[in-house]
Amino acid sequence: MSKNKIRLGLIGGGKGSIIGDIHRMGALRSGAFDVVAGALSSTKERADASATAAGIPLDRSYGSFLDMAEAEAARPDGIEAVAILTPNALHAPAIHAFARHGVHIICEKPMTGDLPQATSVVAAVEAANIAFIVAHSYTAFAMPRRARALIAAGALGDIRTVHVAYLQDGRVALEHGDASPATHWHLDPAKSGISGTLADVGSHAAHMASWLTGLAIEEVCADLSALGRHNLLDNDGNALLRFKGGAKGTLAASQMAIGKANGFGFYLYGTKGSLTWSVETPNELHFAQFGKAPEVLTPDDAERAEDAHWETMGFGPFAPYTSAFTRLYTEAGERINALKEGRAAKPDHAPDLMAGLNVMKFINAAVKSSANGSVWVKL
Questions:
Q1: What is the pTM (predicted TM-score) of this model?
Q2: Does 328 score more than 60 pLDDT?
């Protein structure tokens, strides 16, 4: 373990968790972190098996995040940062447990299970003066970052319409299988929070819409559905959006879209031009300006080199996704080190505490809108 690297612990993301592996590899590949501890599962036995597979010593493998928070705080070489990869409703309790010990936090999206939890988290993190990053990982893809830079430079002129969509078929398999709220946490409001699919993938879409354009969502009119037999939480939905400054848009989120493995994308239109992108073709950004031939922009040599590393390790189409987590953890490391050293952090793209809170405000407003007959609700 390097003395100069940030000591990182993992909460959740144990054996069999794709997101756990990607977080761990992104952290290590960034060069900013050492993964030294974890509470990787809900029982000590499973947590130890996952820790062994991840190279975490068993004396720093814990059966709960509460045990981990106290034990690591008592160690002179305790963790300095933690990645929280648990079900949504556990995010807030875990954040509170580590924030009180001054541990910096990288949290999976959405930030919490509901808006009151999010408000309490903001207060705790601000009081602790710690770094906080929400893993809206698509903002770390190369081409969305290029799109954001083009918009900031005025290439689209004034933004008129913003359309974002995240369509998957993941819950179709659950519908046809033997999953239930008792066996799958995404289906259980006690673990998932106030929303299902809108929180799971729609949160990415809502954050992307504002992050790209710099425009805050002010009002939402949503129609959320719970299709099929697992009907405790939404698994399909649509929303009309009104942005500060007058732009309008739409958001679609579904996990009942048969044939869509991971259909996330955006379609932006301004007074001068447009940008469109899909994670299904992650290295293509379609750019059109009025009166000019449309272009397809692709990553530069440095961006492609990052993907190439993961491609040689057998990640294939997942390479841009893994590269994104490397960028996310690189920026998290810079933010944490800046706080430790008492200096200003270099500007970065990583979603922060307020970004997490704004997404929770959106989810809360959309759920309220749908429950009241799809009326307009201010965030």
A1: 0.95
A2: yes
